[in-house]
Amino acid sequence: MFSASEIALFALTMAAGQFTPGPDLLLILKNVLNHGLRTGLFTVAGICTGVAVHAFLAVTGLAILIHQWPDAFRLFRIAGALYLVWIALQLARSSLHHRANLAPPGARNPRALSPRSAYLEGLVTNLTNPKVVLFFSFIISQFVGPHPLQRAVYGSIIVLEAALLWPLFAWLMQRRPVREAFLRRQRLWNAAFALLLLAVAAHLLLDHQA
To answer: pLDDT tens, 154-175?
Structure first.
């Protein structure tokens, strides 16, 4: 039922898929670089919660049923796109009106995201990303048979990878060279994040129209 080579291939495939440039990665970059590691980790926690939900849907086959309801899936896609637009506009507004979002060490930053807001950003962004539903369902269908234990193991691999790799990514983005490079051009980077989020949202909407 299990082989080490299959499990390794599955883990590598899922890791590559989760770390493909997209809204989750952009959101973590935005929050870690602007608000610090703590806020980034709350964002990661929200994303990991979304990953767990997607993994459950994919493992149980419910994701296929969701995809077979075209109207519901269209609304799901539009909701995700509009949420990304909202995040991008908030970021653009912050960049226009504030010189920097990072407070000096030890100081209180009144513009920092609350833990709850950071968690919800991560959760909603991941949950409303239709690419995650489709990717998880496709990959799992290639590796996993009908046995419940096998499905549980492969589903757990997805969640554990997210819980280990996303925090590591957030931590690496807080290293001094990365942080200093960001601070030198914070407005420019935030404008780029906003444009990239808008591009992802546009792609979702164009896919919907197609």
So the answer is: 889 999 999 999 999 999 998 8
Query: What is the value of pTM for the model shown?
Result: 0.81
- Contact 197/88 with Cβ under 8 angstroms? yes
| Residue 129 and residue 53 in contact, taking contact as beta carbons nearer than 8 Å | no
- In whole angstroms, how far apart are CA 36 and each of 43, 45, 104, 118, 175? 11, 15, 11, 11, 11
CA distance to 114, 133, 137, 206, per residue, from 81 (Å) = 23, 15, 21, 10
Using an 8 Å Cβ cutoff, are 159 and 165 in contact? no
End-to-end CA distance of the chain: 40
Residue 101: name the closest of 176, 166, 189, 19 by CA. Answer: 189
Assign 167 to helix, strand or coil. helix
Task: Output the furthest CA–CA distance in the chain (Å, rounded).
Answer: 57
CA distances from 96 to 80, 99, 162, 191 (A): 25, 8, 33, 9
